[in-house]
Amino acid sequence: MSTTPVGALQKRIKTFLRRQRLLIRGSILFLFLTFLFYSFLTPDRSNQSRNRFQVDLRSEKRPSEQSFAYASLLCDDVMIEATKVLIYSFAKTKSPHPFILLVLPQVTQTEDLMKLGAKIQVISTLEYPFKVTAEKAAINKMCRYSKLHIWKFVQYRKIIFIDVDCLIVQVTLGL
Fold first, then answer.
1. How far apart are CA 14 and CA 164, in angstroms?
2. How far is residue 168's CA from residue 18's CA, in Å, rounded to a whole number?
């Protein structure tokens, strides 16, 4: 039983349309869940949350310096030198925004990081939720889920997360 070219084309079109409907349903579900999260699960920020997208041109107020922050995660002492370079390069940009360094309890060398200007926040380790083989554990650090603690810093409107092995050349204030 061979299908004709027209029949095969019709079958491909039906499959394509079915996938598109599923994609649209998934997008609508994602938007709905995002709306629920921002409506009910985030803390109320009084008038700021209601008027977040309105701009008052008569007011010359600028957003407070605490409305933005930069953050990074340090899992252990292995990446301490790279973190020092990151914080030093951030300090050279003379950004008015704070740099928050999320640090796990096993990190022992935090004094130099504080001297360079980082705000140290000791956080708990979030367990890796998947099975880990020995070879995966050697390649990946299992502390990566701990960066989800960044969602606890609700006092900032925006936080830009930067990996510790990066070098900051220029801070973009418009983010």
1. 48
2. 46
